[in-house]
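Ticket #4471: structure output looks truncated?

Reporter: J.K.
Steps to reproduce: submitted the chain below (365 residues) through the standard prediction queue, then opened the result file.
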Amino acid sequence: MRGHRFVHFNPNENDKSRFEQLLDLFMQLLTYTNGDASEALDWLNQLDRKYQFTNDEYGMGDFIDDLKQNGYLQENPIDGSFKITGKSEQTIRKKSLEEIFGKLKKTQQGNHQTFKPGQGDEQNSDTRPFQFGDMLEQIDFTESIRNAQINHGIDSFSMKEDDLQIRETDFKTQTSTVLMIDISHSMILYGEDRITPAKKVAMALSELITTKYPKDTLDIVVFGNDAWSIEIKDLPYLQVGPYHTNTVAGLELAMDILRRRKNPNKQIFMITDGKPTCLKIGGRYYKNSFGLDRKVVNRCINLAAQCKKLKIPITTFMIASDPYLQKFVQEFTETNQGKAFFASLDKLGAFIFKDFESGKRRTVY
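Returned output as attached by the reporter:
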């Protein structure tokens, strides 16, 4: 099992100020404490005592004052407790994006490119002769004037239809994505923290979409005994509960959300580490902790088939590689004709990033 290794802190290794360096560490700790600012500060104090992050010129008290002054932290005047602000929530998402996906600058809206030329959103380097029905704004006047001069000479300028060149443009697809996150108890079993990497990926993906693909939509669904939607701002506070794994409820909610989306391209990403073990029938829960109960599995397979009919591919990211689970995942994926990845915790972000970005190559008909 991989743990966390702390090394000696050298403030001279980069050009960041002492506050910025401590802020990076504080934001990382907030992810592990589920957004609990007081607990994160307590951890930071313990690390400071051991590794001397601060000195006489800049101490932890100064850091806390700067957090409040810069809008990252709020202090309750009654009991002195601390709470992070919306600015902190956004900063955590940005830090996750930089950590997992690299630094991405904001670009024009709807940036999923496809290989289908036409009246799209972004020009490419290809030109073609004018055809009836082409719009005026599609004409490449530089190339058209050049053709006119070549075809008719420069002494007596004239331009005819055969001289006109059209600058090709590419469509940019819009995608509606539902990210399903398993918050059952098994996500923290056996001494392995699986929920924190899942949260980091969700925060990074949400920041990626809202900055680089603002015409896309992203909905977050969490599932345990039941399934419910959460807001992007709630991600830092997400934690597991004493739940079984009701994958059926998660899929049903995801499908319901996507039915209401108008985008032609829809997809489900599902992050889970375990087998479906729960099903709600009427007002009662049918549970089998051993998993792979055919009554539960068959409902999952049926939903995978329904998603296929609705042209909603499901990509499953299994944060476990137990051999007996692979058969279920394979059956589920083949039924939906989706994809499945058995991802280690440190590679989860890379898998999701590559799969999401591949959507830029989806052709729109």
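Triage note (M.O.): checked the attachment and the full token line is present. The first helix runs from residue 18 to 32.
Status: closed, working as intended.
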